[in-house]
Structure formats: C-alpha cells, structure tokens
Amino acid sequence: MKRNRRNRLLSFTAVVLFVSFLFSSDKFVFTQLKYNGNWDPYPQIYSDILEILTLTTSVQVSPNRRIIDLDLSPYNLRKELSSAPFVILLGNDEIKLSNEVILILRDYIINGGTMFIEDISELRYSKFDSSIRKILRLMFPEYKLKKSTQETVIMKSFYLIRKVTGRVILNDYIEYIEYENRPAIIYSRNNIISCWARDRFGKFIYSCIPDGEPQRFNSQKLFLNIIMYSLCGTYKMDKVHQPFIEEKLKRGR
Fold first, then answer.
1. Which residues pair with 32 in a beta bridge?
2. How many secondary structure helices (H) and strands (E) does the chain include?
C-alpha cells in the first residue's frame, strides 16, 4: 500500500513539474543525458547543429549545451527532465540504469518528452544495443519498437527524407516507440550524430560510408528532421528557403 501511494505521488509530482517547467524557456537547448559510460563521444558537435538549426528554421536556440546527469536524485532528475522537451542518449557499450531511473524516463515520455537514442558502435551486435533494448522493454513493456517507413512523420517533418542513412548504413530504417500516435523514443544505429563532427580546422572528421558527402548531407537533414519533429510535430518551413539551406549545408557552413 505504501509503495503504491509513493508511486502515485511520484507520478503526480512528475506531472506537476512537467506542466510547471516544460517550455519555461522559448529557446531550444541541446540536451544530453549523462551516465556512467561513454555518454559524450562527440562533445563539440552541438555548436554546429545549433548553427544550422538557426540558419534553417525560426527556432530560437540557446548557445550552450545542457547536460542532465541520470545519477541525480529522483526529484532533481524529474525536475531537470521536465524542462527539456527533447533529450539525447548516446553510447557504444553496455548501459545500466536503475529501475527508478527507467521509471522516471517512462514518466518523462508519457508526459510529452521525446528521446533520441543512438548506438554509435557501428557494430551489428553491440552491448549498447542489447542493453538499450532491455531498458526499453522494461520502460514500455506494452509497446514494441517499430521500423520507420517513408510515411513515418520523422521522414517528412521538415525535409522530405527518402533514405535513412548515417556515417554508416547499418539499418535502412530508424526504430521508434510510438506513444499516443507519436514517435516518442527514436532509436538509430547508423551513427547519424558523428556526421556533424569536425576537427579544430573545421574539416569533417569521419567519412561517410559508402556514399561520401551526399550521405553526410542526407544524414544531417535527417537529424534536423528529428529535432524539428520533437519541437513542432509535422511543422514545415516555407519551401522557398530550402535551396539556400541545402547549399549552406553542402558547404558545411
């Protein structure tokens, strides 16, 4: 009885915090989840992503990255998540989360949050992948991961994407958990995020296999789609700006 009362109280607290803090700022904040492991493989990419997001959309962005540590106390973790409509979780090795953290992330999704998860190992069989699938089964036992098609909203939320790519093409689809008719957890295994990584001279660090720069361009557009979907659903910008936008992206500016 006490445990049920406590769980109801935690769920109620999550709703109150979510309503109180969600969209408390009108600026998009690039938010990553920190855990005990390789949570931050590309620490500088956020600045390029935010620059292109500013160029291509009317979204106001914060210039600084935000990090939410999953080891925070339950109350503080809920509070931090409640002001982050979109969070990113990256990794290449086994990830272990407590049942309490998994419950908090479930509440975050149920209350409107969106999570992008990416396995950057580029391995067909990876410890990160197997551990994430276990976590997602515990988080949402009532739902299964689905595979994207060209009709999935994230494929056309901003750009019209015809092919799922990344630095590699391990899968020709993105997986997602659909909650209340929206892809609430989006899972990629193609290392999309590394397509933004540059060295200190501004050159891209990682080649895209097998199709080179067109593949990078497509992967960057896909990630922008994911961000725009998380903020605006099926929002689309005026098409007149897209040739200019695409030329900028091709130049890597």
1. 67, 88
2. 7, 7
Number of domains into which the chain is organized? 1
What CATH number does residue 192 fall under? 3.40.50.12140
User: Which domain, by its residues, includes 138?
Assistant: 2-251
DSSP 193: G
pLDDT in tens, 34-60: 999 999 999 999 999 999 999 888 888
DSSP one-letter code for 201: T
Query: pTM of this prediction?
Result: 0.83
The amino acid sitting at 154 is I
CB 10 within 8 A of CB 77: no
Rounded to an integer, what distance in angstroms lies between the CA atom of residue 112 and that of residue 56? 25
Q: Which DSSP symbol is given to 205?
A: S
Paired residues of 226 in beta bridges:
none
Q: What's the rounded Cα separation, in Å, for the pair 203 and 199?
A: 6
Tell me, rounded to whole angstroms, the distance of Cα 179 from its chain centroid: 16
pLDDT tens for 99-150 read 999 999 999 999 999 999 999 999 999 999 999 999 999 999 999 999 999 9
Residue for token digits 């962005």? Answer: 61
